[in-house]
Specification:
Elements: H1 7-24, H2 29-47, H3 61-80, H4 85-95, H5 102-129, H6 135-152, H7 156-167, H8 171-178, H9 180-206, H10 210-233, H11 236-248
Helix pairs in contact: 1-2, 1-3, 2-3, 2-5, 2-7, 3-5, 4-5, 4-10, 5-9, 5-10, 6-9, 8-9, 9-10
Length: 279
């Protein structure tokens, strides 16, 4: 079991698991490859390491670094046993020979990890340290949570390039057709769901006793499951996009894993996203 404590350790664990997935042709590699890009970007934002992060962007980068490590632990735990129905759906689709869409595999993993794991991970960190009793500290944690949105949204073009190179699929094609609208959808969707995460964190923190905590967690699982089911069967447009994506995907991606060089993740966004720096 991988138990990373920060982004440095998470990247080591992810590289090891990715090599295993690529060697066996395991399509769980698709989400993990995207997650690896995101974690590389988070690592750079915490420690510096490329031209995008030449100034500090978090109030408490050490807290962000440790939280990202715990977040990665939750992912590795779901590889052993899915923590919720959304993860179960994501793992089953990745294992199905008929569900070969690169885009669908990536989005199902992102849904389960953000809409279920993230709220539980943030709640655990804040509750364990008793930080919820300090209103000013909670406001600082919310700032760093929101600042992470600005880090992650910059990953989208890089993820499209890497997944297209290593797995094929039509993500780069769809992005080119949509143009700036693709960037707007990504940034708006990410911010919406991460705002929902913070609301769910507050719900978990406000729960009085195990019964109320179970109610909040049940809602988290239900919401993540609803999104997963919509991703698969939401509309004719879903099926059209995933069908085209499946036709363009690689049938064999063994040996194609190319770990990103240190400092090689750049924004590359057409909307020229810039971080709002705390002064």
């Amino acid at each position: 079991m991988h138990r990373p404590r920060n982004t440095d350790e998470a990247l080591v664990c992810m590289r090891k698991k990715l090599r295993e997935f690529y060697a066996s042709g395991d399509k769980r590699a698709i989400f993990l490859r995207a997650y690896y890009v995101m974690t590389t970007q988070v690592n750079a934002s915490v420690h510096g390491g490329n031209e995008d992060f030449d100034q500090p962007i978090f109030f408490d980068p050490e807290w962000v670094d440790r939280l990202a490590g715990r977040f990665a632990q939750l992912y590795f735990q779901s590889l052993q046993k899915p923590a919720c129905k959304a993860w179960k759906i994501a793992m089953e689709r990745a294992a199905s020979p008929h569900a070969s869409s690169v885009l669908q595999n990536m989005v199902l993993g992102i849904n389960a990890h953000i809409n279920f794991d993230l709220a539980n991970g943030v709640h655990e960190f804040i509750r364990r340290a008793g930080e919820h009793r300090d209103a000013e500290l909670m406001a600082r944690r919310k700032f760093d949570h929101d600042q992470m949105n600005n880090v992650l949204v910059r990953c989208n073009p890089k993820i499209q390039d890497i997944l297209g190179r290593e797995f094929g699929g039509g993500m780069r094609l769809f992005s080119g057709v949509l143009g700036k609208f693709d960037e707007l959808l990504t940034s708006t969707g990410l911010r919406y769901y991460r705002d929902r995460v913070w609301c769910n964190v507050l719900g978990l923190l406000s729960a009085k006793g195990p019964e109320e905590l179970a109610k909040v967690r049940l809602r988290l699982e239900w919401e993540a499951q609803q999104v997963a089911e919509f991703i698969i069967d939401g509309s004719w447009m879903n099926k059209l996009v995933y069908g085209m994506d499946s036709i363009l995907c690689r049938r064999n991606f063994q040996g194609r894993f190319q770990p990103d060089e240190a400092g090689a993740i750049h924004a590359m966004g057409r909307m020229d996203h810039r971080l709002q720096l705390p002064h």
